[in-house]
Amino acid sequence: MELRQLRYFVAVAEELNFGRAAVRLRIAGPSLSQQIKALERDLKVQLFDRDRRSVALTQAGAALLPGARDLIHQADELRRQAQGLAVPEPVRIGYVNWRPTDLAERAAGVAQLRVDTWVMPSHAQAARVADGTLDLAICWVQNSDLEALGLDARLMGVDRLYALFAGSDETPVNAADVLVLVDADDTSWSSWNRYSEQFAADTGARAMRTDDGGVTGPTFFEHVRELRRPVLNNPKGQDAVLPKGLVRRPVLAPVPLWTWSLVWRRDEDSASVRAVVDAFTRGVGDLGVREDGTWLPADDPYRQRGERGE
């Protein structure tokens, strides 16, 4: 005896018509008739009196019907309980180089979190969210990226970029007096190149191309020493330990801001992913992106609307 046979029995008992019961169960009429006969053989009782014109429950069938309904109800309830106990798939999140240190604590009680260890550039991580490899990513994106990839974004963090200088002068420097390095490898440094080229165009800072990967790290430090002028720091090296002889200088007029977005698919239907988005961005605020004297690219999702096109 199988549970599905009990469902067939109850349907026929309620319809008292094999044709209507077959339609209700979405099976073929002959298959339904065969399953009822198989159930009767297993139970060793006749459940229905039937002829070409009518179907009626036998005395045995009427006696067994309440128990069959109870068994089906218990099975359905067990299935609902099991679904409630099932462990949902973890929410997969990637990042570039910055992420809050308390991601697991923020997700606690909301969803299981799996932090992807494959650290990639911002444009690559955004694309991985779009194609479903990741559910979320913390990366730098612009409005054009969100539209092209079908993503939504919320502000997650902000870096105030500074200039590195070879010497001991730590006084602020105007943006127009800063040098910006642009890397020839646009595949790896697409986001930084877009940012720095627009920063130079908007502020009068000088942009200089390099083909040695020296927009951050030890090679970048060597460039700073050789150039003998303030060089805008890449956000990948925001918290790097500086070698001896290099200092940080604040950049003013304007202050360059680099935004970190939490991005997810616009058509995301997972309640767990949506809950993690809310948990990660609750109470974040604008993190200073509205302050006077700051700069964001024209296409940045968090730039004040009144500044667009200026």
UniProtKB/TrEMBL annotation:
UniProt key word Coiled coil: no
Stated name of the protein: Probable hydrogen peroxide-inducible genes activator
SUPFAM superfamilies, per database record: Periplasmic binding protein-like II, Winged helix' DNA-binding domain
Family to which this protein belongs: Belongs to the LysR transcriptional regulatory family.
Signal sequence coordinates: none
InterPro entries: LysR_HTH_N (IPR000847), WH-like_DNA-bd_sf (IPR036388), WH_DNA-bd_sf (IPR036390)
PANTHER family linked: HCA OPERON TRANSCRIPTIONAL ACTIVATOR HCAR, TRANSCRIPTIONAL DUAL REGULATOR HCAR-RELATED
Keywords: Activator, DNA-binding, Transcription, Transcription regulation
